[in-house]
Predict the 3D structure of the following.
Amino acid sequence: MIATVPDFAGLVRPGIRGLRAYDPGHDLVALRKGREGLVELGSNENSWGCSERVADAIFAAMPNLYRYPDPLGGGLKRALARKHGVEAESVLLGNGSHELLMQFAQVFAGVGADVAVSRYAFAVYQLAAQAAGARLVVAPARPLDDLMPRGHDLDAIAVAAKHGVRLVYLANPNNPTGTWFAAEALENFLSKLPPQVLVVVDEAYAEYVDDPSIGSAVDLLGEYPNLIVTRTFSKAHGLAGLRVGYALAHPSLVAVMERIRESFNVNLLGLAAAEASLSDSYHLSSVRVRNAAERRRLTEALRKRGLNVAPSQSNFVLVDFGQRCARIEAALLAEGVVLRPMGGYDLASCLRITVGRPEENDRFLYALDKVR
Ligand SMILES: *Cc1c(COP(=O)(O)O)cnc(C)c1O
């Protein structure tokens, strides 16, 4: 007898029905097969890799792989608390910040508790809202002739968040636009919101920022208990493969989130590696300096070629290739250069390009001149 397969797509909760699985861009494992030296600039990973201290910490942790990790992540939490000048009870650890971004909506949003974002904001926020069954309110982004084309318009978001919104997601800087807002603008925004509207400021790229006016939402945590700041070890710390992220928030908010946290959500090697990485401020600042230099060089090289490059304070640039975009993307792929298409963001004429090491950027520019 052949069992009947249920219509699983029909069985799912309404919120999940409209969801599509995460689009990773390209199947990199397949692309790498039988091919040396692919230039991978599609995923905003740290092109310079992680601190050398990470390997030592991972080897030291290996004999304990048969044990569960510290369920409280105490060592890493205390190190993060010291770094950010908060109490350890204000730190929430996640299996990447993606996990936490999803869980904020799961815990606080839903029917009658809407989620507000900017247009062109990081796609995970929309996923989080949908999966939680919450209505998504999308505020218009800044216009193209603005200094921050397609950036967050905090005034517009504040207006959108007026009625029925429980949770706001902001990214500073934002992925994929690369745009940012100043600390002063954020404070002004927070001062306009009622305290029961929670504001998540996703600072995944904060370590790359070198414009001092941008500051960090971390400095406002003491003043605004409705503020949540997320950070990650996936970008400037170069540990994307280990999946460690964290949030900083009021201890009583963290305590609520702890109720749904999976007991061992951050693994043993991840905890050890993140703590080791935090101890190596030299590596982090060297990554920041090298990324900033290459970001500048890449931006100028692309602008010299007549392309529209959005300003960036992160480890990637968003570039408008116009009508030729899809053709150029495919041709670059054939040349072994992987970039990230932006059709999913309604930015079909743009590609997001991670800042690579000098030789990677050179190879990309060489290939670009060949195909365009
Ligand atoms: C990369 C990225 C993250 C980080 O995700 P992890 O799950 O921590 O790897 C979060 N927010 C934004 C905007 C990002 O670009």
